[in-house]
Design goal:
By secondary structure, the protein is of the alpha+beta class. Helix content is 22%, strand content 38%. A five-stranded antiparallel beta sheet has the order 1-2-3-4-5, with helices on one face. Strand 3 and strand 4 form a beta hairpin. The protein is globular and about 35 Å long. It starts with a strand and ends in a 9-residue tail after the last helix.
Length: 89
């Protein structure tokens, strides 16, 4: 697992995350007193695809960032099977 290209903007933090050969573009958006994770799988057969969006914000940006990564890992494991390589988290 690797995260790269972190960009901190005035209101949104964006970063890339790669897992088992799949590349994700993630964003953490401030929402009220919390942070919403946004995850998009980059490329693929059908172009970029936004993964389901959480409706409840996380208390901290690092917590939202971890959720982005966990959501990406789950997406890959659901398609490849948790037994195909690394164990599911």
């Amino acid at each position: 697992m690797a995260a790269a290209n972190v960009t901190a903007g005035a209101s949104t933090e964006a970063f890339e995350f790669e897992f088992k050969g799949f590349r994700f573009t993630c964003a953490i958006e401030p929402k009220g007193i919390g942070f919403l994770p946004r995850v998009r799988i980059a490329g693929g057969d059908e172009g970029d695809t936004m993964l389901p969006v959480d409706t409840e914000p996380y208390a901290t940006a690092p917590e939202a960032r971890r959720h982005c990564e966990q959501q990406a890992v789950r997406w890959v494991d659901e398609r490849m099977g948790a037994g195909a390589g690394d164990p599911a988290p």
